[in-house]
């Protein structure tokens, strides 16, 4: 049954990737408040398009791609503005306050947020999501050369930011 | 999670070191491995919201149903066009015999009800290929599967009873998660239909409004049925009800993307279904001033009783305003729209589009209505 498979696939994908995607969103976003919304929306989009879940191998790629897209602020604002997502924060605020607050204080996170968006995206996909440069290029719609350039400049900027006394 | 672990593929590891990173001197906080570790560590404590999976389990089928609804709505429009001729014969010939209602010959009153309500009778012989596709483009079984069986009063899953939502704000809240039971048919009432005035092109906007008349909070999530019933000279074969989608002709309706997946109704609150009447393109304000119906079989649809209908030239008659005293014999064209909530009959509201003959009705799903007065 299609429905059954789908639910199973959803659960399976959730278990395998939800948490890491939450991390991905947290690193890409400049506000932690939207992380869960972005990941939820990505799951909903990918799983409600049947064609996209036929190949489980590709599900993670689709999910990451969607998280990246949604994390770009204009899109995210649009979603949140439209309130497509229900019950955005209350749950998480209470249950996860500690982790998210901690995140806000994290020096690395602060430094990451100081980077240009492209640099941040490249570093996060490359190092957190562990993609190859080619995968990063594809996901971000950049050339391989741009990925290399953003990556090296991003690392350099991050190095400076982390060494800064603040 | 191994994707994000510290064990990158050896080749990639190598590639990275070569391309981006200084050889680690042990103190550089920013070599690749260190960055990977830092990134993992920074977000490692994040936990999904407790109900994250449950929300997805509800939201995915709902979204899928929305998609299907749009797709099938478009398909329905095509089918309508393709089957116009046979349906014209079938439906139109009996239009006059039942007081202008579109119904099949020999159909009982019950049948009339079913057909005009859209897909209620999907498998029935009276509506082959034509009306069974509901105006919102879904069949009942799909809807029930797709949107967690709203017919039941209790919502499965983590939904809390209605007592759990007394804190919801006073206006209908479209975005609260499914924490309220679906509205039963008998919780919905005081239905009204309003119709604005036509613009110069005959376009009319209007809305149905249905109130939660019960004493408890409930949720409306299915789109329900909007059906069009021709009156007088209106052409049943050229009336189409489809879902409003971005870029269609009903520019005055809200963007479908803003539609809530469900509307939570406090007692006394109402939901609205907005609609737009767009007359057929070539037919003047009513939509069929110069109808292009291809066959003479269109003639009986002109609605004059007892063989008074002329043959093919009959279309022209729709242009002629009938004298008042002749209305009963030769009624002018209008279209009655009815709305039946998703949870079932009876119909909750109707609205009459005056001087409407042939065209398309675009409709939204349930929206939170502003408090009346």
UniProtKB/TrEMBL annotation, chain A:
Keywords: DNA-binding, Sigma factor, Transcription, Transcription regulation. CDD domains: Sigma70_r4. GO terms for molecular function: DNA binding; sigma factor activity. InterPro entries: RNA_pol_sigma-70-like, RNA_pol_sigma-70_dom, RNA_pol_sigma-E_actinobac, RNA_pol_sigma70_r2, RNA_pol_sigma70_r4_t2, RNA_pol_sigma_r2, RNA_pol_sigma_r3/r4-like, WH-like_DNA-bd_sf. Residues 14-78 form the RNA polymerase sigma-70 region domain. Residues 106-158 form the RNA polymerase sigma factor 70 region 4 type domain. GO terms for biological process: DNA-templated transcription initiation. Belongs to the sigma-70 factor family. ECF subfamily. This is RNA polymerase sigma factor. It comes from Streptomyces mashuensis.
From TrEMBL, chain B:
The keyword Repressor does not apply. Residues 1-33, 98-200, 284-351 are annotated as: Disordered. It comes from the Bacteria. Residues 152-166, 173-182, 291-323 have a biased composition (Low complexity). Keywords: Membrane, Transmembrane, Transmembrane helix. The chain crosses the membrane at residues 70-89. The keyword Mitochondrion does not apply. Residues 8-30, 111-120, 137-150 have a biased composition (Basic and acidic residues). This is DUF4232 domain-containing protein.
